[in-house]
Amino acid sequence: MTAEKVATILGFPRMGKDRELKKCVEGYWSGKINVEELISISDKIKEVHWELQVKNGLDVIPVGDFSLYDHILDTAFMFNVIPERYIKATTNGEGLTGYDLKNIKAKVDTYFGMARGITMSGNIETDGSAQGVQALEMKKWFDTNYHCIVPEIDDSTSYALVGDSLVNDYKKAVKLGYRARPCIIGPVTFLHYCNNVGKRLSKADHAKKLVSVYVDLIKNLAGAEWIQLDEPVLSLDLDQEYVDLFLNTYNELLSGVHGITKVMLVNYFGAYEDNFTKIVSKLPIDGIHFDLVYGLSDFESTHAIDKIKNTISAISLGVVDGRNIWKTDLAISLEKITQICKSIGNAEIDIWFNSSCSLLHVPHSLDAELGRMDSEILQWISFSVEKIRELSLLKNAYIEPSLFTEQINKNKHEVTSRLTSQKVKSIPVQQQLKEIPSTSTDESVFSRNTDNYERRRVQRELFKLRKFPTTTIGSFPQTLEVRKKRQEYLKGIISKKEYDTYIREKTKKCIEWQLELGLDVLVHGEYERTDMVEFFGEHFTGFCKTNGGWVQSYGSRCVKPPIIYGDISRPKPMTVELIEYAQSLLKGTGKYVKGMLTGPVTILRWSFVRNDQSLQTTATQIALALQKEVLDLEVAGIKIIQVDEPAIREGLPLRKKDQISYFKWAANCFKLVSQHVSNSTQIHTHMCYSDFNDILHLIKDMDADVLTIENSKSSLKNFKGVKGYYEADIGPGLYDVHSPRIPLVEEMKARVHELLKIFTIEQLWINPDCGNKTRTEREVDLALKNMVQVSRELEASFKKA
Ligand SMILES: Nc1nc2c(c(=O)[nH]1)N[C@@H](CNc1ccc(C(=O)N[C@@H](CCC(=O)N[C@@H](CCC(=O)N[C@@H](CCC(=O)O)C(=O)O)C(=O)O)C(=O)O)cc1)CN2
Ligand code: MET
Ligand SMILES: [Zn+2]
Fold first, then answer.
1. Is 145 annotated as a binding residue?
2. To test ligand 1's pocket by mutation, which of 140, 149, 559 has the most ligand atoms within 8 angstroms of CB?
3. Beta-sheet strands, E only, within 132-202
4. Looking at per-residue confidence, does 558 or 103 come out higher?
5. Is a pLDDT exceeding 60 seen at residue 716?
6. 575 vs 691, which has greater pLDDT?
7. ipTM, interface predicted TM-score of the complex
8. Catalytic residue among 49, 147, 524, 738
9. For the chain, N or C: smaller number of CB within 10 Å?
10. What is the pLDDT of residue 92?
């Protein structure tokens, strides 16, 4: 029997060509379609995607990669990791007895309830005391911009196989004539993302209970030749406890499914490194996947293949980048694959030509860009469908090189044309970059003139802010009306002048609204921005915007990351006019508008980045471009400038050994943006979506004057033990803007009192935990009224004391 060559991927994006999934899921939430329609439309999307993958050349397609909301939530649901409060809420308090898994609506509503929270009695939007169940937490999926749900496990969690959608999907795909491979998030990665709220059982105890349910599931999938188990935790530094957990869990799992199906162990986002010898090579697995884009070091430093080639029956080579949009250099990939195959020698091992990770992180297809994107740039790019074609071509060219030379040559020509293109290189930008010292040398080059204490003194004198000053994070509701106006402008229905006038009107109303609310430091509302990163991408050179390059961020929410293809500069001011206008409306009030920029690390992380230079170099270019904007804002009389860095934690490399250099360049890039402003200009920054424990020193190094930081969901756990450590001003978010629930005055006040155990009165600001763009105007109004009242009551009580 000769070994087989197979083209496949680890997963396909779910949203659809025109974000059909977003539309149908949101349609269900708003009552426009019923549950049967939701299921039939989403089933159809799945089938269309299967067909598309096969048509474009895949031999084997993944099933189980689709999800109505999130794959970790699906896994939790399938294994009965469903906290009872969600079932009770969905069944009007009847609890388990009223809950029938055959009742598809109850099932779907429980599922979405876990993701989004559930309203029970009273109106949760207007009545803070109304009963409801909060959504489960979300967490970043490794170092990506995708957020998964954090399932909750407890001592009483009773694992059971309650969901049958994976088995059904698999059967359906087979019936349609496809070679399908069920994909499951592996038990260790699943438990890694779970929040264990129990007191008695450890995660290892949970693993023991969970593993038999995995075995049951895989038994139900009997007939499938392969099962894919995703364990990207193998890209992390794992301590001995984790190593043992992994070995024990997999030994049991693999013996349970032995002879039933073959298991492909899949790691991505990095190399196995020492986890290969400690874990992988000790397990009787049938196949192993390597991320050859982000984890190539496995082939440089270890004899990975030698260790496993006599025991495995397939090796999966992730040569096509699942996280970035550049065309694969097929000739280089073929060389890599040939080398690896050589080291396999005569062993009978199937070769899978695979994506490095799931294609979840790249857009659907280039169709929406044809005739819109600059044609030179277009030839450098592949989205999901095009990446599938690359895999198919790679496989075919590997088998029959002579038949495909023309296509491989064409690809070489396109790929190299980027590296030599005039579009990519800017001599002035590169010249300017040369003047920036490398981060490993003199760090004072990046600092401001004086330290935080002196700046604080000067700023206190100038701003004369009250105690517990109030502010918001920047955006105000991006209402349907705002989005419609923007569409009308983009489609040419209204002129630029009309659009600009509309945005100015909204900004003016926003300023008046904030004055009425009594906020102390105001914002312009960010109405002119589709997104805090895409907006800057539209103004910088070296960036290219896509028309339909949507990528799922969480649930039904998507982002359209811009593409960084060349050296970055800022040809003209981007934000000054509107911010200056907003500030002009405050004449005579003694109040200030905060200028609002997105920081270099966040712009970098939420864009598709160049792969022909280091991230540090690209971030430095962005920082220099932003520095110009900061100085122009200052010249225009803007005294407070916020530089948002919500992605600073997400940018932290997965392995400790890579983190030290990141800490340095990330802090330096941030400082570069604002280093030349005067002492009296107050620099704010904002961070969210993370646990900040492991980057506290980075936050301190960034040396902002004021930090607003998400805190409301993680209930202060970020700041425990740092009393006296962080000395600049700080506004830990007092409530969660991602929930429609209106926060009560008393609960926010209680939070401040807790915060006062860690921070001084002089340090504390009063603000929400993130921007208001996803909320309604009414929700924002009610929440901010309460928030301002908190500040006033605290101010009064401390005056008395
Ligand atoms: N880049 C980035 N990453 C991030 C965040 C972020 O803010 N930006 N925040 C976190 C994630 N949070 C997020 C919060 C909200 C949304 C979100 O609301 N996304 C919107 C899209 C926002 C947008 O670009 N809106 C466009 C409209 C785009 C659109 O839908 N256009 C329609 C046409 C609409 C019409 O005709 O009415 C189309 O193209 O089909 C605009 O404002 O102009 C959505 O999915 O619905 C995304 C992420 C972490 N990562
Ligand atoms: C994801 S962080 C958001 C910060 C931005 N200034 C906003 O208020 O929307
Ligand atoms: Zn935020």
1. yes
2. 559
3. 132-133, 138-140, 147-149, 152-153, 180-185, 195-196
4. 558
5. no
6. 575
7. 0.97
8. 738
9. N
10. 65
**C-alpha separations of 624 from 90, 429, 535 in Å:** 52, 9, 17
- Residue pair 158/198 in contact (Cβ under 8 Å)? The answer is no
The most distant pair of C-alpha atoms in the chain lies apart, rounded to whole Å, by 87
Does residue 544 have a known ligand-binding role? Answer: no
Find the 186 Cα to ligand 2 centroid distance in Å: 34
Same fold across 5-83+136-420 and 452-800:
yes
pLDDT higher than 50, residue 98: no
Q: Is the CB of 424 under 6 A from ligand 2?
A: no
486 lines ligand 1 (CB under 6 A): yes
Q: Which of 64, 60, 68, 45 is nearest to 9 (CA)?
A: 60
Pick the atom of ligand 1 nearest to 480's CA.
37
Ligand 3 center from residue 472 Cα (angstroms): 10
- What the block records as the tokens of 551 is 């990528």
Integer Cα distance of 312 and 264 in angstroms: 9
Higher pLDDT, 437 or 200: 200
Give yes or no for residue 473 CB within 6 A of ligand 1. no
How high is the pLDDT of residue 303? Answer: 73
The per-residue pLDDT for 690 is 75
Determine contact, residues 110/37, Cβ cutoff 8 Å. Answer: no
| Residue 697 labelled as part of a binding site | yes
Three-class SS of 305-368: HHHHCCCCCEEEEEEECCCCCECCCHHHHHHHHHHHHHHHCCCCCEEEEEECCCHHHCCCCHHH
Tell me which architecture the domain covering 5-83+136-420 has in CATH.
Alpha-Beta Barrel (3.20)
Residue 559 Cα to ligand 1 middle (Å)? 5
773 alpha carbon, closest ligand: 2
DSSP category for residue 2: P
- Is the distance from the beta carbon of residue 487 to the nearest atom of ligand 1 less than 6 Å? yes
- Does residue 531's CB lie within 6 angstroms of at least one atom of ligand 1? yes
Place of tokens 């983009």: 490
The alpha carbon torsion through 752, 754, 758, 763 (nearest 10 deg) reads 10
Query: pLDDT tier at 694 (50, 70, 90 boundaries)?
Result: confident
| Side-chain half-sphere CA neighbours of 373 within 13 A | 22
148 has binding-site annotation: no
Say yes or no: CB of residue 768 within 6 Å of ligand 2.
Answer: no
pTM of the model: 0.96
With residue 644 as reference, give the H or E element that holds it.
strand 640-644
Assigned token pair, 753: 């009192």
List the chain domain ranges.
Answer: 5-83+136-420, 452-800
Phi/psi for 731 (5° steps) reads: -125, 85
pLDDT single digits (tens) 180-219 = 999 999 999 999 999 999 999 999 999 999 999 999 999 9
Where do the H-state alpha helices sit in 3-58?
A: 20-29, 35-55
Q: What is the structure's pLDDT at 126?
A: 55
Averaged over 406-435, what is the pLDDT?
Answer: 96
Considering the domain delimited by 452-800, tell me its CATH architecture. Alpha-Beta Barrel (3.20)
Q: What percent of the chain has pLDDT over 70?
A: 95
Q: Is 474 annotated as a binding residue?
A: yes
Is 206 in the active site? no
d(CA 20, CA 26): 10
| Ligand with an atom nearest the CA of residue 474 | 2
The C-alpha atoms of residue 298 and residue 70 are separated, in whole angstroms, by: 30
Q: Give the 3-state secondary structure percentages of the chain, helix then strand then coil, rounded to 5.
A: 45, 15, 40
Could you give the CA distance from residue 573 to residue 560 in angstroms, rounded to a whole number? Answer: 23
Pair 76, 82: CB distance under 8 Å: yes
Is residue 140 a contact partner of residue 650, using CB atoms and an 8 Å limit?
A: yes
